[in-house]
Amino acid sequence: MPKLAVVYLSTQGNTKMMAEGIAEGASSRSVDVEVKSFYDWNPEDVALADGIAIGSSTFNYSMHPPIKKFIDKLVELDIKGKVGAAFGSYGWSGEAPVMIADIMRKEGVQVIDPVLRIQYKPTEKDMAECIRLGKDIAEKIKKL
Ligand SMILES: Cc1cc2nc3c(=O)[nH]c(=O)nc-3n(C[C@H](O)[C@H](O)[C@H](O)COP(=O)(O)O)c2cc1C
């Protein structure tokens, strides 16, 4: 079965909810999904997946430094040609998912447009969007 790695950094659980919605959507389309905080992932294992979804909330107009470090390690590995997605909860500016998508694109990852940004805690409607994105990622992975 194709595999999707969902990696996130979330301080209050908002981006985590998004990650879980994405995982739910992808699982419903016969993709093997693992969803964990970046803290519990090894970049080597993420690089083995067919699809990589990375999420971070926005802090001080950027992504959080620890997930930036994680992504720096990930891009030292070969992730070219994989399917990617970037997402994150934000308050007022929401730069983090855009930055993540830019980095992945530079590495030759096929990043799904647009990035998914949700303001603060996802509503039920927002969660439906996350589930939808998970399904879209799964369909794209299956076409690789
Ligand atoms: C100290 C601090 C700085 C923040 N800076 C930004 C910011 O620059 N831009 C923005 O859009 N949101 C900012 N936020 C809002 C968070 O991104 C928002 O609360 C988000 O829902 C947190 O999601 P999480 O629970 O996944 O970490 C900030 C929040 C805090 C507490």
From TrEMBL:
InterPro entries: Flavodoxin/NO_synth, Flavodoxin_CS, Flavoprotein-like_sf
SUPFAM superfamilies the record matches: Flavoproteins
Flavodoxin-like domain span: 4-138
One Gene Ontology term of the molecular function aspect: electron transfer activity
Pfam families per record: Flavodoxin_1
Protein name, UniProt field: FprA family A-type flavoprotein
Taxonomic source organism: Methanosalsum natronophilum
Lineage: Archaea, Methanobacteriati, Methanobacteriota, Stenosarchaea group, Methanomicrobia
